[in-house]
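Field: sequence (string)
Field: structure_tokens (string)

Example rows 1 and 2, in order.
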Amino acid sequence: MTPEKICVLVFFVLTYILIIALPKYKVWTTLGTAVAITITTMVSGKMNFMDLLTAIDYNVILMLVGIMFTVYFFAESQMPNKLADKMMTKMPNSLMAIITLCIISGVISAFLDNVATVLMLAPIALVICKKLEISPIPVIISVAVSSNLQGAATLVGDTTSVMLGAQANMSFFDFFFMDGKFSIFWAVEIGMLLTIPVLIILFRKYNKKLDYQSEDIKVKTIVPSILLIVNLALLVVSSFIEKKPAITNGIICMVIGIIALIFDSARYKTNAFTSTKKAVDFESIAFLALLFIIIQGVDKVGIIKDISNFFATLGSKNLFLLYTIIVFGSVIISAFIDNIPYVATMLPVIAGLLETLGPQYGTVLYFGLLCGATLGGNLTPFGASANIVGMGILKKEGHAVKVSDFFKIGIPFTLMAVLGGYAFIWLVWSMGV
């Protein structure tokens, strides 16, 4: 192992230890690590200034900022309160209200970016928690992990799904049925069904009958709600456009967000600068951007590729062992490393393995990779962008979230979802090959 690889690995491991131990200083921790890794990789010639500029996923950052604007004005319009009020009148108990919210989060995330889903549902979740007089911490966490779970369900649900579709030449409908068999969508849905008992157990103390009286809530304006719906529709439509610029979704969200800002400033004579400070969670944005730089350094020195090759060598002679290693190894790695560069590295590794094993084994291994890499982010509060944003929302609302709070939900939720998908994929796609 080269000196620069050892240095980057040490910095990387130390970063996550400090994030867990000192969550209040996570931005400063990641900033220090990003600087240290950047210097190390540049001195060793593994990364240059252009790599540094392109390390950050500007599409994700622009999406985040744009939707934060729209969702902020959506919340200010009182529409979340109105929707929460309507939802509460239909629920027999508080437990069912929480479970329904998580299911809705998952359904939307199968067709829309996970982060966007969390940002849209968080205001409603916060209002419901306030009405129920319960802590929003476990509820927001559950909404976030539910959204992340469904990212692998469809071709448009997550970037990793798009990457797999391109590698395996899969269409949108191939995610539902392919070669006469149930496809990855059903593996994810089985995982989702298995997580419902987990959520019921976790929220069992909230299983109280609701004695709720509907309130007469006046919505100030429906414009932010319309903009949010337009944003959703444009993101879904853009997902079907081939060879579009990588920054397309980010531009869509930013344009809609700016329109919302202009509308609010013009109608209510508000200060745009003040609204921006209230709407945008700059700490979460900075943390996510710095993580992109750190992961770029980890990737550039070859650590992700080494891990991928290790998987391939360890189980290359036994399909079941290889499949198991890919699924659960991906879960562990994706809990700490962004799954996009990891999946991008693993796809050609699997393609190379198929030259020896035979192309008939491709689907089971590709689906196993997607299952493990997508769901693995739910193990930790920093393993997926949706989780990071969820934690940011809670902090902005004045709620201190411990890493242990996330583990209580993320670990059992992830294990049940992965085990369900793991068993389904193997049973359906390994037989007869």
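Row 2 begins here:
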Amino acid sequence: MIRRAHVIGLACCLALALPVGVGAQGREPLNLELGDPARKARTLALGVDQIHDTHKGVDLSTDEVAAALADAAIVLVGEAHTSVESHRVQAQVIAALQRAGRKVTIGLEMFPYDAPTAPFDRWLRGSLDEAALLRESGWYDYWGYPWGYYRDIFLLAKQYRLPIRGVNAPRAVVAMVGRRGLAGIGGMERGQLAPTIDTTNEEHKRLFVAYVGGDSAGHGAGMPPEVLQRMVEAQSTWDATMAYHAVELSKESPDPRAVVVVLVGSGHVAYNLGIARQARAYTDKRVATVMPIATQPGTPEPVRASVGDIVWGVPTETYPRFPTLGLSFRSSGEQPTTVLMVSPGSPAEAMGFKAGDIVLTLDGQPIRKDVEVRALLDRKQWGDALTGTVTRGAETLTLTGRLRRR
């Protein structure tokens, strides 16, 4: 995976990037006694392709999902960003709501709320092809994950002319919260965040710590308390700002059956402690959550009933569907083609990339900024060859290899 390295620290990004249940505590984040008091003492065994309404304690068909969400103004559907199966669930939820006659707007974590909307609208009208959509929307500038994971959702939106909008906070401002704490943000930057941000919820802190490697009591995340608190504040800032803009989107349609479906990392959805909790400051309408959860066929996964309003068992995926290279780069304002880190066991390590290398070309294409690496990689498949040139000190080196899963 290729990520920018933000000063906020990898630990905060980690909580968003991890599939639910993955981390130092194994699958513990799925089965914590957190959230709704009426459900948090109850555990269920979730199987592959089982869709379960945790309020009523009954299994659902795909079409019955829409009925279970009939009173929701906002539906948060979680994802592991590189999971084909969780994106399949997102598409099925959107399609089920559309078939039920709901007027669906799709909200994206992948884009900030102030991202240009014209490319999305032109895509829906059929006046942009995929390459132009990715270029004009700034997909690779805003999001580090391959377009292929989201392609079917965008095609579904195009088929039914479902509006697409960003709901996230500007990443640079959230990074400032991670450095300074929320109290250190003022002026124009504070105006780009939600008006009300609750950073004091102890259950939310326990969940965050469990994701980044602490224990279920909220201790031992391997960082000083003041750093941990800033991380929690940054996570809360993300949650609250997405909540605020999702609610604003829900107000745009006069149709009482309109619904905003937000596609977002499961760390923002779990136990209704992220976006759903923060949304209470802005609306009294129902904000419902759908959690895709990976489980092994024949081995049901124990999950806490409070982890989501609907839990949806999906097959565990061994490898990401689309290739990853394994390079992280310095932030784009500071030597954007300088390698910060090479992931152990990655194709980049096998090719011989080293931290500190300056990437000049990939497959003969000049690389001027890190987003160009993501765009090129998005055109590759596992097994494809790759050639790169780098400068390392006074040397210019050619590195070759293949994109192979390990």
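free_text_note (row 2): Confidence is low (pLDDT under 50) at residues 1-27.
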